[in-house]
Design goal:
Blueprint (H helix, E strand, L loop, with lengths): L16 E6 L1 H10 L1 E6 L13 H11 L3 H10 L3 E8 L5 H7 L6 E6 H7 L7 E6 L1 E3 L17 E3 L7 E7 L10 E5 L2 H4 L2 E4 L5 H13 L5 E4 L9
Parallel strand pairs: 6-7, 10-11
Antiparallel strand pairs: 1-3, 1-4, 2-3, 2-9, 3-8, 4-10, 5-8
Protein name: DUF2971 domain-containing protein
Organism: Flavobacterium johnsoniae (strain ATCC 17061 / DSM 2064 / JCM 8514 / BCRC 14874 / CCUG 350202 / NBRC 14942 / NCIMB 11054 / UW101)
């Protein structure tokens, strides 16, 4: 089930705006399945995902001298944790459009921290948390390891532009084997506050998205990104 963890931090304001940038196929999958896809933590492009910083690793190695399984446990745990990433920003991000969409097509889901918390449905045998990512120097700074979720809430400083909030699902208590990831139950109407269409998309693309959403009986507000609004001079 979704749990509160005093060690995992979030912005104080539940109305803090978050975004998810994705292509149309992933958006349709979300609407049709009413489930949110989460990637297995060790399948991300960043090879450091779910690992420890150097100072923490050195400490864990010392503890693992008499207990080799201690270190191995953390490696295996990466295969048990799935992540859904969201971007904190009051406004749309031009950089996020560039990174996560292609061919001038794609969408951005606008939500809030509070909506994410309400949207996540309880899952039997899964521990689920929502937390804000900390960006640190992996050569110098320490990641606590007294909480199994901490490695997944730290990233290198070079990723600070992501300003990431994560939904985390730990499947360790179940027999489920994750391949690329898993889908979790969500309340779609809570999850999605508004949809923005790619700023450089054609009009037919916006009409297509509107029609698809209407046919699936969702009532989201849909807007064309205002990053390409008319010049006033």
């Amino acid at each position: 089930m979704y749990l509160n963890n005093p060690n995992i931090k979030l912005p104080d304001d539940p109305d803090t705006i978050v975004w998810k940038y994705l292509d149309l196929s992933k958006f349709l999958d979300l609407l049709l399945s009413k489930k949110l896809f989460m990637s297995r933590s060790d399948k991300f492009e960043d090879q450091y995902e779910g690992t420890f910083s150097e100072p923490t690793y050195e400490e864990i190695k010392k503890l693992a001298v008499d207990n080799p399984e201690f270190l191995n446990y953390y490696k295996i745990h990466r295969e048990k944790v799935a992540i859904s990433s969201w971007h904190i920003n009051e406004y749309e991000s031009f950089a996020m459009w560039q990174i996560f969409t292609k061919n001038n097509e794609g969408l951005a889901i606008q939500s809030t921290i509070g909506r994410l918390q309400k949207a996540v449905r309880p899952e039997n045998n899964f521990d689920q948390y929502i937390g804000e990512v900390n960006y640190i120097d992996y050569k110098k700074e320490y990641i606590p390891f007294d909480d199994l979720f901490f490695p997944f809430l730290f990233k290198r400083k070079s990723f600070q532009y992501e300003r990431e909030v994560r939904i985390l699902t730990d499947t360790s208590k179940s027999e489920i084997k994750l391949n690329d990831g898993l889908k979790i139950n969500v309340d779609i109407n809570q999850l999605i506050e508004k949809i923005y269409i790619h700023p450089k998309s054609e009009n037919w693309y916006k009409k297509l998205v509107i029609e698809l959403v209407e046919r699936l009986d969702f009532g989201f507000e849909i807007e064309k990104s205002d990053l390409e609004s008319d010049i006033l001079i």
